[in-house]
Amino acid sequence: xxxxxxxxxxxxxxxxxxxxxxxxxxxxxxxxxxxxxxxxxxxxxxxxxxxxxxxxxxxxxxxxxxxxxxxxxxxxxxxxxxxxxxxxxxxxxxxxxxxxxxxxxxxxxxxxxxxxxxxxxxxxxxxxxxxxxxxxxxxxxxxxxxxxxxxxxxxxxxxxxxxxxxxxxxxxxxxxxxxxxxxxxxxxxxxxxxxxxxxxxxxxxxxxxxxxxxxxxxxxxxxxxxxxxxxxxxxxxxxxxxxxxxxxxxxxxxxxxxxxxxxxxxxxxxxxxxxxxxxxxxxxxxxxxxxxxxxxxxxxxxxxxxxxxxxxxxxxxxxxxxxxxxxxxxxxxxxxxx
Amino acid sequence: xxxxxxxxxxxxxxxxxxxxxxxxxxxxxxxxxxxxxxxxxxxxxxxxxxxxxxxxxxxxxxxxxxxxxxxxxxxxxxxxxxxxxxxxxxxxxxxxxxxxxxxxxxxxxxxxxxxxxxxxxxxxxxxxxxxxxxxxxxxxxxxxxxxxxxxxxxxxxxxxxxxxxxxxxxxxxxxxxxxxxxxxxxxxxxxxxxxxxxxxxxxxxxxxxxxxxxxxxxxxxxxxxxxxxxxxxxxxxxxxxxxxxxxxxxxxxxxxxxxxxxxxxxxxxxxxxxxxxxxxxxxxxxxxxxxxxxxxxxxxxxxxxxxxxxxxxxxxxxxxxxxxxxxxxxxxxxxxxxxxxxxxxxxxxxxxxxxxxxxxxxxxxxxxxxxxxxxxxxxxxxxxxxxxxxxxxxxxxxxxxxxxxxxxxxxxxxxxxxxxxxxxxxxxxxxxxxxxxxxxxxxxxxxxxxxxxxxxxxxxxxxxxxxxxxxxxxxxxxxxxxxxxxxxxxxxxxxxxxxxxxxxx
Lengths: 338, 505
Hints:
The structure holds two protein chains of two kinds.
Chain A: H1 2-6, H2 9-27, H3 34-59, H4 67-85, H5 90-114, H6 119-138, H7 150-156, E1 159-164, E2 170-174, H8 176-193, H9 195-205, H10 207-212, H11 217-243, H12 255-264, H13 276-292, H14 301-328
Antiparallel strand pairs in A: 1-2
Chain B: E1 4-15, E2 18-29, E3 33-37, H1 44-52, E4 59-64, E5 67-69, H2 74-79, E6 82-85, H3 97-108, H4 116-129, H5 145-158, E7 163-167, H6 175-190, E8 194-199, H7 202-208, E9 211-216, E10 219-225, H8 231-239, E11 258-267, E12 271-279, E13 283-288, H9 294-301, E14 309-314, E15 317-319, H10 324-329, E16 332-335, H11 339-343, H12 350-355, H13 371-384, H14 401-413, E17 419-423, H15 431-446, E18 450-454, H16 458-464, E19 467-472, E20 475-480, H17 488-496
Parallel strand pairs in B: 3-8, 3-9, 6-7, 7-8, 13-18, 13-19, 16-17, 17-18
Antiparallel strand pairs in B: 1-2, 1-4, 4-5, 9-10, 11-12, 11-14, 14-15, 19-20
Helix pairs in contact in B: 3-4, 3-5, 4-5
């Protein structure tokens, strides 16, 4: 039984996370409270949703760095459009942000599946292209809390239930958690129980074989990049509702920290393996680290350092494993061939 | 036309003016094992692709199950029961055995939702049908090549295969695995499934096939019943010329110095207590099954896989070889087993490939590369090892296997080695080029170079070496000093571990 538990990478991550939480609680007992947990969940839900998208891209053997630009574009366009129309409706905000997200996803998908550009190059290009277009054509003026349509503020502070502390202050579990759960379950079902999802695993494992086996690789890649765009659209609205301030310079720049979370969660940077649970654990780890660096006496600049370290080590580990495996089967010095 | 499964008639195919196939006919009957043989470039792969619908022929027709087609599309071919197992097997290393077997079937049936029980049942049934057992939840990336092969066969089976085409399936298999594969093929045959087996290896043809179709230069030479053929006849038909092998005669003389001496060399998990020596002018064969440690040993001597303990002497001097550079400086060269990934820069010219090991010899007085010197050097070697090419600018990837191997040979000969280790020098090379390479090797040895040939092809070591070492499980189990006194099957039995009683060599 114990052996079985440890045959999953996720188990290690879970125990590391547990140790980390215990250590933090010892340093600061206020860390391990329901209130702090709710707060963490609300603050990390957006990142976790982005991470789901990045996970699926990594699974297919690609990488996407443009999703932050899509998220901020969705958010900023939705806020400005709602203001221009004078409508305050959160569903409309989601519809605008997600549609734009899907549209931008289509652009990525065309470059990647039809023109067959390397995914990193393609999305590095569109990251700047999307963000540049947003700043050029829509401007750089931030929308502050006073100008923000009311629906965002209402949505941002909506709780599923609220509790009252002994000192009389209130805290609650944000609706963000429901959205996150929905996204996680939908992603998991797609990956586990649909041919589309197995196709994503298949092209991540051996793209050529997937083609020969009859998978429609172009269609699958269109789905992947549109899904990432869609999730980025959701995250954009959640983000502005959370901080009640819309600045088109935000979110962009956080790509690596989301990718780091996914890699830390055990997804292989070369595609084909990883899990939804692992991704969630990875996000928890990165978020707790980020929010509590100060607590353990380190400046917030350390966050960048850790993110870089995780990505470098994560990628090294993947390649090192492949090398060791290759040495065992005598094929070392050789490229990965199946 | 009872019993005919596939018939191709008058098939021709041109690639950029080169006739890859020229009016080829072939009939494959139900439940027959057909070998398709021919040298590189004889049109085997093109013919397979035409039957599988991957390439359209310029002329001719294909009749499958009584229906005649001018062209057949890949998906139609699959629906008619034609399955190709390509050399790379096209498996998904990250997925389980069950999924690898069932997934393509589900795609073909246009399923949208996965039913995991169905996936497992389909896979289980396929495995049972050919009497194999593999854990369905194993990840394919962790399986041996032999088991992957079985997975690929099962996948073909469940798509109602009537004809399974196997493109050189034995390249990466050990001898036991090959035997096992052949037993699976026999089972398939007994179920009425036809097999089209493409291979280079003559011994396999006799072991497995009913009928042999021979192609040469895109033309069909003919169909032959396997029992009417022997090695010599087959070679003649494939190459169109008679090839004679002359055993290497090593004249022992006192003036020959010992070039290399290996003492108790050990690398844990790879090989143990290896001791042997190599004299000037010798061709030493090291044979053994895949996994016997033969290649690991060679890599250690060449510094790529340094040994844990033991001593290596070069020219009677104790040396410490930590990297290929050390080895090169000591006059040791190594021709790797896999020339495509380890031996060549495929996208570079012949000239660059040959001179890459000796760039320090083609410098001008400013220590920059002298183009004229480099050209001369490469010209010299192209002539010396007889590389057939219109120009030295041609990229290595555009050469045939035989010529590619000669480029690798030239690259190392240019370093002027005293000791040359050749690992699988003729893997995937056609018969004519093989004999050409053997000639070069023998000439080098007669000029005083010490050569080690590592190979699992018994005839190869027997015909070219004057001394043979047999390895098994990382140890030397036999040294044969007088090669002329051992027969092919005797040596084979030693290699695979079925030693004859009372044989003393």
